[in-house]
Prior knowledge:
binds zinc ion, 7-stranded mixed β-sheet, alpha/beta
Amino acid sequence: MEIELGEITTCQMTLAAIAAYPGECCGILLGKTSESGEVEILETREAHNQIQGAQKSAHFRVDPLFLYQVEREIEGSGIEVIGFYHSHPDCAAVPSDEDYENMVPGLIYVILSVTKDGVKDIRSYKKDINY
Ligand SMILES: [Zn+2]
């Protein structure tokens, strides 16, 4: 299975990660899964990181109401929520123990490593498998 990040969505996530630095950005990945299992990310939606204060640089939580609103909006469009992205300020683009625990099997998790100089690395994960 391959994940096609796409130029526009990569750009959107990169800008979100830089804007949120030194906090974590987070958002929703919208796209399609083909019958052969190929995943295509078509859109990203930046979510408000519900974690505030000092914790914000190490944790994120997508507002469930926002997720619900996005799901309602795309209902019947053929596009679905295929995963989530978030940034790791001054840390590698590798899931933390907490990230890993919160991963839902089947969904895609994109992690961006960001420093004050910009985004250094972007990686996507699915539980148990690293792409
Ligand atoms: Zn993380």
